Amino acid sequence: MNTVDFDRYDHVRPIRWTGEVLELLDQRVLPFETFYRRLHTFDEVAAAIRDLVVRGAPAIGISAAWGVVLAAKQVSAGDGQAALKQLQPAFDVLNASRPTAVNLAWALGRMRAVLAKSGSDWLSALEQEALAIATEDLAANRLMGRAGAELIDVGSGVLTHCNTGSLATAGFGTALGVIRAGVAEGRIDKVFAGETRPWNQGARLTVWELQEDGIPATLIADAAAAHLMKTGQVQWVVVGADRICANGDTANKIGTYQLAIAARHHGVKVMVVAPSSTVDMDTASGEHIEIEERDPGELLTALGKRTVAEGIVAWNPVFDVTPHDLIDAIVTERGVILSPDETGMRAVFGTP
Ligand SMILES: CSC[C@@H](O)[C@@H](O)C(=O)COP(=O)(O)O
């Protein structure tokens, strides 16, 4: 088996901290423009998360953490507790920027906990914590890449959905990390990516990232997935997650649920790859997850041009929940849970 040269995949970084400002690679204009937006305030960070300048569960958590640092730079306080009081509005605005991915609340929780126990050095403690959140995410992705690839037999084809790569994380990616590792190790022969309508994360971001790596990938229409499975070209669906509940139910980009149903019908396996920052053991099952609904305009237009007759009504939920019994493996940096259920999740993530 070949080894994985992780440094080869480190060139796309969606989030850069200069020490003064946050620079976000604007994912709305990729793949044709590579443009870093410079953000100076927490309000700008919240707007960037809401408007999908930055997206992907781990990446929005990391960005929110840096948003807290930007807010903190405007505050003068003697210790962390005093700063926390003044920073509460910033925490609230950042937390409300998107509802489904738990990584956002998780990262803000870490920043809040650091403040609560810091003395006069609270600002540098916050900065170090934001850096640690990003560094740990990259390390988790590399671990998961290897662990997930081990489940894949040599000669397999895989289908992925949305974008779970360097762009959605601190680097390397979750599901795309498994695909990178699986290709490097010689296990994966063919990679397919669904377009991921309506925002086209698969078409605009995933196949571009793979092309940058020199990994051949084939784009399919989302509607072609069941037919792809029927033709025997894929053995695994490999996806990321925005929130994994205590029983293994998983929220991910809209369309994941129907992929899992089609996969079960065709004997194709489903792997969910996500760091522990995506695991929400306080939410018992998927029915309690808030599903973000975005502007129906995303469905009524393409490249800013209206494609649907005036007066048409559209509904645009952007995540769905895959029940745990349709998932074959959940891969995290803390462990792999096969045929996940509450017992398997608790064995890795603990009891309440
Ligand atoms: C490593 S990213 C995992 C998920 O966040 C990803 O699959 C996804 O659904 C992203 O949705 P998005 O709306 O693009 O933020």
From TrEMBL:
Site (Transition state stabilizer) location in chain: 162
Q: Which Gene3D superfamilies match?
A: translation initiation factor eif-2b, domain 1, Translation initiation factor eif-2b, domain 2
Which residues constitute the catalytic centre? Answer: 242 (proton donor)
Which pathway or pathways does this protein act in? Amino-acid biosynthesis; L-methionine biosynthesis via salvage pathway; L-methionine from S-methyl-5-thio-alpha-D-ribose 1-phosphate: step 1/6
The catalytic activity of this protein is classed by the Enzyme Commission as 5.3.1.23
Q: Which family does it belong to?
A: Belongs to the EIF-2B alpha/beta/delta subunits family. MtnA subfamily.
Which HAMAP family does this UniProt record tie to the protein?
Salvage_MtnA (MF_01678)
Q: What is this protein called?
A: Methylthioribose-1-phosphate isomerase
Gene name as annotated: mtnA
